[in-house]
Amino acid sequence: MDVGHYLWIAQHGYNPDNPSNAFYPLWPAILKISGISASPNAPAFAALTAFALWAWSMRRLYLWIQKRFGEPVAWSTLLVFLLLPSSIFFWVGFTESLFLALFVTYLTGLRSINRFPALAAAYSDESGHLFRFVSDTDPTISDSCRSEATLVREQ
């Protein structure tokens, strides 16, 4: 499973000719900094951390959707997230919950006065394609926010 690779990178780093080198370093860095990778129960703690990130993301996403589109749409969104068979990946220590948290931070921060969290989340994505697509297609996002996000990505 991928969790083993992430924990290996957190404990030993990247080594030549290791299959774990195919994974990005953000999640292993979080596991190492938090001390989770040093625990004998590291896979369980990684899953708990992923679940906590998922729960935090769902709360923020629910509040953001409720404010913009109303409570029925917000509840429907949560229900879809819960019923999707692939939602298991948010709870088992994979990076999906981390990048969901980054995306929700980006999405909710686009219209705020302090846009630093949104820009930091956009910068942390490897490709930035999904974040750029959302900000380019949403007519309510200001041009100044788009230009700031573009400047951060180009540096």
Write a structural description.
It is built from 8 helices and no strands. The protein is mainly α and 155 residues long. Helix content is 67%, strand content 0%.
What labels describe this entry?
single chain; 155 residues; mainly alpha; 8 helices
Short description:
With 155 residues, this protein is mainly α. The chain has helices at 2-12, 26-33, 42-69, 71-83, 96-109, 116-124, 129-137, 143-154. The protein is built from eight helices and no strands.
Q: How many beta-strand runs?
A: 0
* Number of alpha- plus pi-helical segments: 8
Which ranges are low-confidence, i.e. pLDDT below 50, for 5 or more consecutive residues? 125-131, 148-155
Q: What's the story with the biggest beta sheet?
A: none
Helix content, binned percent: 55-70%
N-C termini distance: 35 Å
- The assigned structural class equals mainly alpha
Task: Based on Cα principal axes, name the global outline.
Answer: globular
What would you report as the Rg, rounded to the nearest angstrom?
17 Å
Order of helices and strands: HHHHHHHH
Percent strand: under 5%
The average pLDDT is: 77
